[in-house]
Structure formats: structure tokens, C-alpha cells
Specification:
The longest helix is centred in the C-terminal third of the chain and has 22 residues. The protein is an alpha+beta fold and about 400 residues long. Strands 1, 2, 3, 6, 7, 8, 15, 16 and 17 form a nine-stranded mixed sheet that branches. A four-stranded antiparallel sheet has the order 4-5-19-18, with helices on one face. β4 and β5 form a beta hairpin. The chain folds into two domains: about 270 residues, Aminopeptidase; about 120 residues, Alpha-Beta Plaits (2-Layer Sandwich). The mean pLDDT is about 95. The protein has eleven helices and 19 strands.
Amino acid sequence: MDQLETVRDSHAYQAASARIAATDDLTVEHMCEATMIPAPSGQERERGRWLYDRLFELGINPHIDDVGNVVAVTPGGDSDAPRVVVASHLDTAFPEGTDVHCRREGKRIYGPGVSDNARGLAAMVALARGLQTAVWPTRVPVAFVGTVGEEGAGDLRGVKHYMSQHMEDTTAFIALDGAGGSRIINAGVGSRRLRFVLRGEGGHSWSDWGTPNALHTAGRAIATLAALRTPADPRTTLSVGRAGGGSSINVIAEHAWFEVDLRSEESDSLAELERVVRTTVQRVCVEDGNTRGVIDCEIELFGDRPAGKASTASPLVRVAVEATRAAGFQPELTSSSTDANVAMAAGIQAIGIGAGGDAGGTHTLREWYDNERGTAGLDRALLILLSAAGLRA
């Protein structure tokens, strides 16, 4: 690809790449620093301040927006031109009180969140450091955005807020999420998360036997949902993740609840599955009512991640494939749920990529990172970024 060759031959790329490689130990140090700052979704303030300080040190002026995102736009280039966004989420999947100590065992570095997403944050700082060395060489501005609320019930809160304000001035979107050098996420898996709350009159397990039991109804509803068939193409899934209810062993439960996670690669399939799930549970509640009482059903939508896809023919996906090969990796186009979902759903060319190295145990207390080929992964990200943002003449 001529565009990629032009970038690779440029002084800007060579200067930035050399700087990133020469400071790789610092990148790993930054990764460990970020790991050891607790950042459950909704509690990212301290880690956000850490990212703010790292970007400020590089001569760009970050700010923290209304929801806690850290935003820094590079100087130079056409300040009025649409931006290329590089996003990396600040939050982790681990609850408050988790031991986030970072430790080495051989080649591996262990720590909850060390890959997802301390690696992405450290990579963002490394890319900014490379661009600084190359004297901010891009034709259009680059917006580095540390987002809040990407994990779990965070529901992409940070990137939704950022994009609601910058949809019109974003030309491309790159999410740095986790480790690796091969994956190119060009399809955003959408999700809907529903909480069902069932209520009946309840009573004594002996003397009021026959009164509708909210837990029994919840169990039958869950079993009915588990028997539903979902499409294989587009891939669409259903999972009941949490459930509870009742007040005592000898009581007919007057309340019960359960939460359902629905996912699909396409919005229409996701919407249809949501419709089926809602009507199925409501039907079970009606069927379980009798002359001695009813089961009321309340439904709350508490998570809504849009689905989207970047065409394989889009300039960003094409350059990502070529840059992946140039960095010595085998490209793997895939789907996942990342900050890039919001841009994809809006029709903006967007991808998610790993930030080099290898990792495992994601979202567990045994999460680890191995920095072998870490710099190659950062170089891939740099090639993609410079190709997307262009070089000043």
C-alpha cells in the first residue's frame, strides 16, 4: 500500500518509532504504575489523574471532561480538520478492594488489569511520546482519550459522552484495548442488558401454598429463555448472568429478579432478540398467575451497547491489515465489544487493536502480560495512527 510505504519512509515515522523503542522500559513501567492504581468502573478519578500527568509531561494540554474522560489533542496540523481519536479505557473489571499489586514471575508480569487495560493506557502514552519526538507531524489533530466506564455496567459511558460532543469532528477512531498484535476488531458486538423484577403477594410456604411464587416464576422464565434458539449468523447470544430473590426458606417468595445479557453483531438481530425475551418473560408471568394472586413483571434496560461494523474496504481497516503484516503479525479480523462500538454504529471508520505483547487470564486475579514483541505491537499502532492522521507536507 503506497500510503503505508510513504509513512514508513518518512522521517517522522522513523523518529517516532525509534523513540518508542528506546523508551520501551518506560512503557512497561507506566503499565505497572497504571495497574496498581485501582480503577473500578465509576471510580477512575485517580487513574485518570495519572494519565493526565503523563500526557501533560509531553507538552500537550489535557483536560478532564464532565464524566471523567481525560482528553488531550495534539498541537500542529490543521486544527480545524476532523480528528483521529485514539481511545483507551481507564476502568477495570475488578471491584473496590481488589489487590492490584503488580509482580514479575519470569517473563510475565502479573496484576489484575495489567493487560486490560493498563497496557492500552501505557501504549497511548508511548504513542504520544513518539509523536512529540517527531514534533507532532500529523496533518490532522490526534485526540488521545482515556475513557471511563468501558467495562461491564459502565456501558461505554465515557466514549458515549465524548462522541456525543465530537461525532462531527471525528474522521477515524482507534481503540487501544489489551495486548496482542494480530487482532483487528472491525465489528462491534452490540449488547442489551435487561433486569427483570418479579413481584407477587407471597405468603407462608405451608398455609399459603398455591399462591404464585415469584422465584418459581423466575426459574421457569430463565429455563424458557435458556431453551430459545438464537441465530448463528449473525452470531447472537443470550445469557442469564445473575439472579436472586426471596426472604426466607419458609416463605413463598414475593419478589425475585434476574439479569439477562443479550449480544449480537447486528442491530436488527439484537432488537429482535430483545423483543422475544421481553414477551417470553411477560408471558410466563401471566401464565403463572392464578385466582390466588398475580406475578407482576417490571423490566429495566440498564445496558445498551450499539452494534456496528467497519467495512473491510474502509481505508482504516485496509491500512490496519497492511500495518499488521508490516509489523510481522498475521492479521485477524474479528468482532468484540470495545469503545470503538460507538463510532462504528455512527458510520465512522473505527477499529480496536491490541497494544503489543502477549497476555492471558483477562478479568481474573491471575491476569498476566508478557512483553515479547511488545515494541512490534506499538510500531503497528504507530503505523496505523500516522496513516490515518496523515503527515504534514
